[in-house]
Design a protein that fits this description.
single chain; 447 residues; Rossmann fold; elongated; alpha/beta; 41% helix; Dna Ligase, domain 1; D-amino Acid Aminotransferase, Chain A, domain 1; 19% strand; 15 strands
Length: 447
């Protein structure tokens, strides 16, 4: 039996952990590159961990080249899996250095992938595809914010053109918010400013696809139930959506893409789906929702790149996916929605929990407890400092008040003495003679 190639997963955040578990459970030898060995995902039993100095910048290429000799050549080049947009951009630009060492599902279309990662290209692409896209302005530098603000109809949203910046998306409700954004995030420019599509996160839907030179190999439709903060999905569920699938087909038509892609849309109050953004070159953070409901995109990608027969996929509608790491209240929120019958009750697929791989969950709980303890200690310290400062201010005010009263009493006493002295001096001499002396004077006068 021929040996199958290993897989290399870059990044073991919760997203990378989902990829590693998917492959490891299907018998694939998984190696993972990660710069932060404290992440819960690094405790997984489904991957061999390799440390790297950098997995999000140019150092990633050197790390991959250093790792390659350790993986051997018996089964051929490893299949490469990336987990965020920075990695996609870095690998797309440097692929000629890696081409002889790794397999990448979208290597033949990397120029198109690289362009779609930058949000600045989306308006023109949606126009060509005939898809609704919000009115958009691009601010090249912070100084342009004050010039654009008078032209906007608020609210609007802002998001950086380049991936993984200081913020993902912000709602701007006034000219002041626009100018504040420019002051707080000057290094994140250029920034896109877009019209706000009315509605909450329940109007957000997505369609994930696996493509082979434009041909759809697998599909998963879903919708978001909750985002905390905006732009970060914390509760998602499977939901058949022919309109989202049609929009995804139109968006990616003619691009001849391969590998995992997805399209996120938002319906306005009239039901019109507007394009929010695509994901290309990697799966999305809510990958666990797809896997739990029968569409195992990483394993499908692995077999496609290894030249093996493709597994059959069929979307189920069983689990709701919950990211309680970013949004600790998401479970309680979902339970409340079920109680009020806003959503149907489904079993929950949690971010880190897995009966066959419990260590990442235990580490995540420990990190959460340590973080909570640290926040509590920090708040206690802040409270103590606040009380101490308040006591100092109180003592200062008390000293000032005491000094004021002392000065007031002293001044009043001095004024009273001065007035008494003036009255004594103004009285007639006879009035100032003591009574005894007055009687002597009277007797002398009688003689």
């Amino acid at each position: 039996m021929a040996a199958h190639p290993p897989a290399v997963v870059v990044g073991l955040c919760a997203h990378g952990l989902a990829v590693a578990r998917s492959l490891g459970r299907n018998g694939v030898q998984v190696h993972a590159l990660e710069a932060n060995d404290t992440l819960p995902g690094t405790a997984t039993r489904h991957a061999v961990l390799h440390s790297a100095r950098d997995v999000n910048g140019a150092g990633l290429i050197d790390a991959l080249l250093e790792l390659r000799p350790r993986l051997g050549n018996r089964a051929g080049s490893p299949v490469l899996f990336l987990t965020n947009d920075n990695m996609v951009s870095v690998v797309a630009d440097a692929w000629p250095r890696l081409a002889d060492h790794y397999r990448l599902s979208w290597s033949h279309c990397r120029e198109t992938i690289s362009a779609l990662v930058l949000k600045s290209s989306l308006r023109a692409h949606c126009h060509r595809a005939g898809l609704p896209y919000p009115r958009t302005w691009q601010l090249e530098h912070p100084g342009a914010a004050a010039e654009l603000a008078p032209q906007l109809s608020f609210p609007v949203i802002a998001k950086p053109v380049r991936p993984l910046r200081g913020f993902k998306v912000r709602v701007l409700r006034s000219r002041t918010d626009v100018e504040r954004l420019a002051r707080e995030f000057p290094a994140e420019f250029p920034v896109l400013v877009q019209d706000w599509i009315p509605g909450d996160e329940s109007r957000l839907s997505f369609c994930a696809l696996y493509l082979d030179r434009g041909r759809v190999v697998a599909r998963f439709d879903g919708r978001k139930l909750r985002e905390r903060p905006m732009g970060h999905t914390t509760v998602a569920e499977p939901a058949p959506d022919p309109a989202a699938f049609d929009a995804a087909l139109r968006f990616f038509e003619g691009l001849e893409l391969s590998g995992p892609v997805s399209l996120e849309l938002k319906r306005d109050p009239g039901g019109m789906p507007w394009v929010i953004e695509p994901t290309v070159g990697r799966t999305d953070f809510w990958l666990g929702c797809c896997i739990a409901n029968g569409v195992d995109l990483p394993y499908l990608e692995y077999r496609h790149q290894a030249g093996l027969a493709l597994p059959r996929t069929r979307q189920r509608h069983r689990y709701v996916w919950v990211n309680a790491e970013r949004d600790p209240l998401s479970l309680l929120w979902y339970a409340g929605q079920v109680t009020r019958r806003v959503v149907s009750q489904r079993p929950v697929a949690l971010l880190y929990w897995a009966r066959d791989d419990i260590k990442p969950c235990l580490r995540s709980l420990r990190l959460a407890f340590d973080g909570l303890s640290s926040r509590v200690a920090h708040r206690r310290h802040r409270l103590w400092k606040s009380l101490t400062a308040r006591a100092r201010r109180t003592n200062l005010y008390r000293r000032r008040f005491t000094a004021f009263l002392t000065a007031l009493i002293t001044s009043s006493a001095a004024s009273a003495l001065e007035q008494d002295s003036q009255r004594m001096e103004s009285r007639p001499l006879t009035d100032r003679v003591p009574a005894a002396e007055k009687s002597v004077v009277k007797r002398e006068a009688a003689r």
